[in-house]
Amino acid sequence: MQKLRGHGPLLQKQRGFGLVAAMFLIIVIAGAIAVMWRMSSTQAATNNLSLQQARAYQAARAGLEWGIWSFLNDSCPPSSSFPIRGFDGFQVMVDCPVDQRMEYTDLPEEQPKSMVSQNIIATATYAAVGAPDYVYRQLSAVVEEPGEIVPVAPEEEE
Fold first, then answer.
1. How far is the C-alpha of 82 from the C-alpha of 53, rounded, in Å?
2. Whole-model pTM over 0.70
3. What torsion, rounded to 10 degrees, do the Cα atoms 130, 52, 59, 79 define?
4. What span, in angstroms and rounded, lies between the C-alpha atoms of 119 and 99?
């Protein structure tokens, strides 16, 4: 008499093997889904932060241009802060430090013989330090402008 497969003691040893394989497969698929979800959310956050950094650069550049315009019109304040229309939530600070203003006189190669240079610093920030969406950009430029020629009266000999 021939023994049939699936009957007898052989069947008793193989019970539950399908359940173990199914659980393993479910765990692997769930892990892959969790990893993909995490990568997707990280990618979205990275894209948003990159966009905010580009906006901060443009806001700082606008502040720098305003500072240059102010300097060339003799009205660059030591420090001023203002919002820029279209950049909601950004704060721009423009500094024209007095200690970084240089006046050069008696320049033999130049016409006119004097020049004024000013370091202008523009800083754009979004959100508070430590916030997940905090962005900070700082740009600076040195601007030179011909100075006024102040004629010096010749000294009279006595």
1. 18
2. no
3. 0
4. 9
62: its two tokens: 């606008």
Q: Using alpha carbons, select from 139, 109, 111 the residue that is nearest to residue 124.
A: 139
Tokens representing 15? 């019970």
For 75-127, the pLDDT digits (tens) are 888 888 888 888 888 999 999 998 888 887 777 776 667 788 899 999 999 99
Q: Which tokens in the block code for residue 141?
A: 């430029």
Distance CA 97, CA 120 (A): 7
In this prediction, residue 150 carries a pLDDT of 45
At 26, give phi and psi (nearest 5°). Answer: -65, -45
pLDDT digits (tens, 9 = 90+) for 23-56: 999 999 999 999 998 888 888 888 888 999 999 9
> CB 111: neighbour CB atoms within 10 A?
7
Question: What's the Rg (C-alpha) of the chain?
Answer: 35
* Pair 143, 108: CB distance under 8 Å: no
Residue with tokens 């704060």: 91
Residue 114 contacts residue 107 (beta carbons within 8 Å): yes
The backbone torsions φ and ψ at residue 48, rounded to the nearest 5 degrees and listed phi first, read: -65, -45
